[in-house]
Amino acid sequence: MLSRSKFIRQAALTAGAFVAGPSLLQAAEYLSPLRLTILHTNDTHSRLEPFPMDGGRNQGLGGIAGRAQLINKIRGEEEHVLLLDAGDIFQGTPYFNIYKGEPEIKAMSNMGYDACTIGNHDFDAGMENLALQLTNHANFPMLVANYDFTGTPMENKTVPYKIFKKGRLRIGVFGVSIEGKGLIPDSLFGATKYLDPVVKANETAAILRKDKGCDMVICLSHLGYQYKGSNTVSDEILAKESENIDLIIGGHTHTFLDAPTEYKNKKGDDVVVNQVGFAGIILGRLDFEFSKFSGKKLAQNHNISVSQK
After folding, report:
1. What's the pLDDT tens digit per position in 229-282?
2. Which residue intervals of 150-306 are DSSP H helices?
3. Which of 95, 101, 232, 286 could form a disulfide with 133 if both were Cys (CB 3.0 to 4.6 A apart)?
4. What per-residue confidence (pLDDT) applies to 17?
């Protein structure tokens, strides 16, 4: 039988353990970062097979088989992965000329893409065709916040944003695309209303950050990386004029960045911008770490060459 003093001491130790236990767990959560891996492509342009072995500089590169293998390998290694595309899925090989985008969308669905945005060449077989391919074959959303498709075949076929839950994280993703006038024939762009991408990006990012409580806000952009000597809205301009965007995954200009570029937004915070060329030659990889101790940071980045080997 325990003496009264021993009983009191043991009870106190037990109670202390119950108190300290959650504190220790909270401390571990505070210090231990949560990792998010973002995989991305842009301007894949119907390149379902690798470039032919014809002596060209891109021979043997690209192709959905090699890309899928890399994606599956990374998913097997990392717990939290997002797979995203920045537009121009269509046009560039006979596959599109014959099948009008069906195999491209099916391939993306099979690879488990989480979301994409729209590119100018995705209109190349008409809005009716794009709407048909998305309806019949896409199990991922097409995100675009600055096109108003009211009264067109694409009405209700896109959404401005989507929120993904990864562990305890909420990741908000939205899309913006380029001005269609002068780039997309009127017969294909139809009655689509183009809205200012900077204005819509800031509006949407504010909703995701402030109203929806997202830990990270990602913009899928088909605006183009930068335009020297031009006021055309680019990812560079968007980054500098933004307020709540953490990452811009770009497309349109087929820019091969050796490493992501960082800009300061209007609040002085960092915005990471990346783009990985065209034709699925490169799979972009960005690893972010989140912790209550050090906040959010880009921990690693990789440009992974996709080949048939």
Report:
1. 888 999 999 999 999 999 999 999 999 999 999 999 999 999 999 999 999 999
2. 186-189, 197-206, 235-241
3. 101
4. 40
- Write the DSSP symbol of residue 209: I
- Max CA pair span of the chain: 92
Q: Give the number of other CB atoms < 10 A from CB of residue 34.
A: 18
Angle subtended by helix axes 102-111 and 64-77, to nearest 10? 20
The phi and psi torsions of 83 (rounded to 5 degrees) equal -120, 120
Contact 67, 306 (CB under 8 A): yes
Inter-residue contact 246 to 271 (CB < 8 Å)? yes
Domain ranges of the chain: 1-31, 35-305
Nearest to 88 by CA among 153, 156, 177: 177
Please give the CATH superfamily to which domain 35-305 belongs. Answer: Metallo-dependent phosphatases (3.60.21.10)
Contacts of 127 (CB under 8 A, 6+ apart): 149, 152, 153, 154, 188, 189, 190, 192
- Give the pLDDT confidence of 167-197 residue by residue, as tens digits: 999 999 999 999 999 999 999 999 999 999 9
Which among 305, 304, 286 is positioned nearest to 82, based on CA atoms? 286
**Residues in CB range of 105: below 8 A, 6 or more apart:** 89, 133, 134, 137, 138
For residue 101, what are its two tokens?
């985008």
pTM of structure: 0.90
Which pLDDT band holds residue 309 (cuts at 50, 70, 90)?
A: low
Running DSSP on this structure, what letter comes out for residue 53? S
DSSP state at residue 113:
-
Residues 47, 279 contacting (CB under 8 angstroms): yes
Which pairing describes strands 247-250 and 270-274: parallel, antiparallel, or unpaired? parallel
Position 294 scores a pLDDT of 72
Cα separation, 307 vs 247, in Å, equals: 27
